[in-house]
Design goal:
It contains 4 helices and 21 strands. Helices cover 27% and strands 36% of the residues. α3 packs antiparallel against α4. It has a 6-stranded antiparallel barrel. A 4-stranded antiparallel sheet has the order 7-6-4-9, with no helix packed on it. The protein has a 3-stranded antiparallel sheet with strand order 15-16-17, with no helix packed on it. The longest helix is centred in the middle third of the chain and has 34 residues. It is α+β, with helices and mostly antiparallel strands. Among the domains are: 79 residues, conserved putative lor/sdh protein from methanococcus maripaludis s2 fold (Beta Barrel); 114 residues. 17% of the residues are buried.
Length: 396
Amino acid sequence: MPLPEKGSAIADRIDIGRKDALTPKAEAHPVPALVATSATPPQPKPANRRWYWGLGGLLAVVLGLAVYFQPWAAKTTKVAVETVALAPATRVLAVNGRIAASGSVDLRPLVSGTLAGIFVAEGDNVSANAELARIDPSAQQAAVRQALAGLDAAIVGQSEAQATHERNISLGTNIARVTVETSARAVQAATQEVARTTAVFDAAQIKLDDFTIRAPITGTVLTLNVNPGQSVDPSTALMTLADLSRLEVETDVDEAYATQIQLGQKAVLQLTGESALRDGHVSVVSRLVDAATGGLAVTLAFDVPVSAPIGLTVTANIIVDSRDAAMTLPRAALVTDSAGTAVFVLADGTAQRRSVAVIDWPAARLIVTSGIAPGDVVIADATGIADGQAVSAAAP
């Protein structure tokens, strides 16, 4: 193969290559030498290192929470519990009543007329048969005088008839028999007239007494509703008189508990505005339930007499039943459904439904008569609890 001519571009390149191989001279444009570097790899920046540490810490926290809560395990509900035990129990019915007088009378006149005078004021204490008020008796007094005059005339007539009859009898056979019989009938008629006029006089006198209003009992004037000069009639309430020496409490009981209330049952009474508790008892139980309200009227008496305004509100707890040893549970522990009444007992880490019998009563705790036994651990609030649910007792 012929060599390229000198001066051509290829020849120039070959020459240059040859020169490089034969003569280690510096070129007009020397190739820069490589710079030596260390064998240690470059270190990451500080910001990247902190990010790695943060990610690692987060993973550690997540793992710790997973181990603590164990979401793969069955969840256990914390519940408040109560251990069943025998203890004294009292069944109480709470009611509200008002102070009332043991004897109270609304006085109304028996006759019509103008009130001539009132001799008492509200708050006055009066004795039985004391004069309280008077209605103008003028018209009736005239009627009494007229009746008395009629009675006097009848008595005179009777005397004359009796004298005539006695004279006829004294004549004996000298007077006709028919005359004697006639005089005898005249005496009889005169006697009847005296009786009639006497009755008229008595009636007028009795009616005159009605114009004076007297106290039927010993007591206190609670209210006074009229003034002198006022026209009154039998429909007018003049005043109210009450015996305040023995106060009582009037209340009523819902018919649902009517059969539970008995005479003599103890009661604890508290007057409004007082902190002291007073002992009492059931003194009257009505035998009639009010059809309109469904209430049974009951009266409570104080064991020790008290002094209080009529109408004052009284809170009363009637003790219906008292037991020395009974099992009681809070009402919230009971669940009532189509299957009946039951509670949940904590056993082997689960809530176990157990049917029970209780005495239903308006109270926060109910007496349980069967279904549980002393020592059983009962869930105090059955809300949201299901049979077989995993539960554990919450810290007290």
